[in-house]
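Write out the 3D structure for:
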Amino acid sequence: KTAYEIKECDWSSDVCSSDLYGLIAHEITHVFQQVKMGRDVWWSKYLNDKKFRLAQEVESYRQQYKVYKMNNDLFAEYSLGRISDDLSGDLYGNIVDKKEARELILS
């Protein structure tokens, strides 16, 4: 899920909480990336350089997966498939296939 795809859910649910915590970790990683190099520079590179965008997203999805893994191995395995779909999908311009996305997140 992206920040734009969060829907209402049962906030007492462990799955929903894990999903939300993972998404927060993903987005906080982007904040640190922007602070490190400057927000405007980061956004310019992110929007214009596919290799840079991939590297930034891989780092963020790795952090997201780590949060899932800390909370629940079964949910982490399920979510790995989902976030691999996201990384390999239209949102990022199909810059990698699903298998490569999975390998990058796990590496």
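Residues 14-37 form the longest helix (24 residues).
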